[in-house]
Amino acid sequence: MSGAGKHFSSVMKLLLKLGRRLNVVLYPELARLGTEQAQDEAMVAVAARHSRKWHYPVSIVVAPIGGLALGVLATLSLQRLGLCSFVPEVLVRTVAILSGLATGVIVLGCIYRNRNRRELRQLLAERCVAICRACGYDLTGNKSGRCPECGRAVSGNAARE
Predict the structure, then answer these.
(1) CA 125 to CA 135: how far, in whole Å?
(2) Average of per-residue pLDDT values in the chain
(3) Tell me, what's the pLDDT at 33?
């Protein structure tokens, strides 16, 4: 393998490792799965569930466009306030549009994270991992039939372990 190929391979391994760490930070429920392979399989299964729903691809387009529209409205508002008289107009437009786009992407990320966590909890519960589907609390050894964190009734399978 050439020097560039080895470098590319090491960079890809580093990115994969960082991606796995980020997944465990964003989705703490993944820590309940023992191996990295099991964590990867769970995330692939969650992604597969989302790909079958029509609103996910639509939201990927709508959120950034909504953010851009917000940026354009901000630009027009700043122009009416007269801010462009002492700041270059191009700078005002660029900042407003990019901040609107960033807002749309951040909102989209928050929505997806919450949906992914719900799907991941459901997947873990289906795999007989003792976890509350509502809040993600570890139910190992729970005999009460209720989650001590959120109070939701849990099935016998979730509290079994």
Answers:
(1) 12
(2) 78
(3) 83
